[in-house]
Amino acid sequence: MKFFAKTATAAAMLAVAGAASLSLTGQASAGFDICKKVHITVQNNTGGPIQLFDLDYRDFGSNRWRSENTPNRVIRNGGSFSVTRNLEGVNNAKTYVRVQFRKLKSNGKWDHSKYWYADSGTSICSRGQSYRIVFR
């Protein structure tokens, strides 16, 4: 009876150790799939100020959108905004950047009921890659 208890305990410990090693391997390999120091520039040519509120990029390898945190930023007409980010999951892979923004309502307040977006061109992401987005 003791033999079976020891064997079951050993098997459980081995399973836990194996699962832990797999999760660590996944985290380590994900660290190598980061497209570093990506430059993203947004140009506002809409005719009025806009409020930039979201920055996403497409991960074609896993067929999903990934998001980058960005504070709400007002960009005047004719103005631009640039940011440098590390994009996970897309190093040496095809991607593009999408930026979402709001416009002012006639009462001078931001319209939270709708939003607009614009995409960069698609390219292979590599260290120092630049993506430019123009709002029209």
Write a structural description.
The chain has 1 helix and 10 strands; from the N terminus they run H-E-E-E-E-E-E-E-E-E-E. The strands form 3 sheets. Strands 2, 3, 4, 7 and 8 form a 5-stranded antiparallel beta sheet that branches. Strand 2 and strand 3 form a beta hairpin. The chain is elongated, with a radius of gyration of 23 Å. About 7% of the residues have low confidence.
Short description:
Keywords: Signal. This protein is an alpha+beta fold and 136 residues long.
CA-based shape: elongated
**Biggest pleated-sheet summary:** 5 strands, antiparallel
Query: What is the CA–CA distance across the termini?
Result: 76 Å
Rg over C-alpha atoms, rounded to the nearest angstrom = 23 Å
What's the rounded overall pLDDT mean? 85
Query: Which H/E pattern describes the elements?
Result: HEEEEEEEEEE
- Which structural class is indicated by helix and strand composition? alpha+beta
Total helices: the number is 1
Strand content: 35-45%
User: Helicity, in percent?
Assistant: 10-25%
Segments where pLDDT lies below 50 for 5+ residues? 20-29
For the secondary structure, the number of strands is 10
Keywords:
136 residues; alpha+beta; five-stranded antiparallel β-sheet; elongated
Topology:
Layout lengths: L1 H30 L2 E11 L5 E10 L4 E5 L4 E3 L4 E9 L5 E2 L1 E7 L12 E4 L3 E2 L5 E6 L1
Parallel strand pairs: 1-10
Antiparallel strand pairs: 1-5, 2-3, 2-4, 2-7, 6-9, 7-8
